[in-house]
């Protein structure tokens, strides 16, 4: 029986890895211009709405796994991830974000990667994001982005 329980745990870990890969591929396909209908067909779903809902469930599960790891690592990691999530939300809502400054699209992509990064990588990516945002004149950044950047700076300063 112990062998079966070990194998079940391995299946759970493999499923989580497959979910992460599927989410990444869906995001890449969308970024490359694929429609939700084409994604639905590729994953065997009946509608674009089903594909969007699947992506939402995969993203929520990935966030929950990150949150569990973050809590094990301490409050600084959780605060950094929360600030990155805030940055991501504002950048996603801002239709003009990519044209605000030269490296805006890179910053947006870096923040998106950081959302699912391991704690060490989260800190490294956070430092890059802050370096790029600090190099920009404040007038090019919306107030909520400046606030989230300040929260990220505070979270990163707690780690040493």
How many individual helices? 7
Structural class from helices and strands? mainly alpha
Distance between the termini: 44 Å
Helix content: over 70%
Mean pLDDT: 90
> What is the succession of H and E elements?
HHHHHHH
Assess the beta-strand content as a share of residues: under 5%
Rg calculated over all Cα atoms: 18 Å
Low-confidence stretches: none
By DSSP, the count of extended strands is 0
Describe the global form. flat
Integer count of domains = 2
> How would you sum up the major sheet?
none
Which terms summarize this structure?
160 residues; mainly alpha; 2 domains; 7 helices; 78% helix
Provide a descriptive summary of the structure in words.
The chain has two domains: 1-73; 74-160. 78% of the residues lie in helices and 0% in strands. It has helices at residues 2-31, 36-43, 48-73, 75-93, 104-114, 119-134, 143-157. The longest helix has 30 residues, at 2-31. The mean pLDDT is 90.
List the helices and strands and how they pair.
Layout lengths: L1 H30 L4 H8 L4 H26 L1 H19 L10 H11 L4 H16 L8 H15 L3
Helix pairs in contact: 1-3, 2-3, 3-4, 4-5, 4-6, 4-7, 5-6, 6-7
In short:
With 160 residues, this protein is mainly alpha-helical. The chain is 78% helix and 0% strand.
């Amino acid at each position: 029986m112990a062998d079966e329980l070990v194998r079940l745990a391995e299946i759970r870990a493999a499923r989580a890895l497959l979910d992460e890969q599927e989410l990444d591929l869906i995001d890449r396909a969308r970024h490359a211009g694929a429609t939700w209908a084409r994604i639905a067909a590729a994953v065997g779903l009946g509608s674009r709405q089903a594909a969007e809902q699947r992506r939402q469930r995969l993203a929520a599960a990935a966030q929950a796994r990150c949150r569990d790891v973050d809590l094990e690592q301490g409050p600084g990691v959780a605060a950094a991830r929360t600030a990155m999530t805030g940055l991501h939300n504002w950048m996603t809502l801002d239709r003009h974000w990519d044209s605000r400054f030269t490296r805006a699209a890179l910053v947006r992509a870096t923040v998106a990667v950081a959302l699912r990064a391991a704690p060490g990588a989260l800190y490294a990516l956070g430092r890059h994001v802050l370096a790029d945002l600090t190099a920009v004149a404040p007038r090019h950044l919306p107030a909520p982005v400046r606030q989230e950047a300040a929260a990220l700076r505070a979270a990163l300063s707690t780690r040493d």
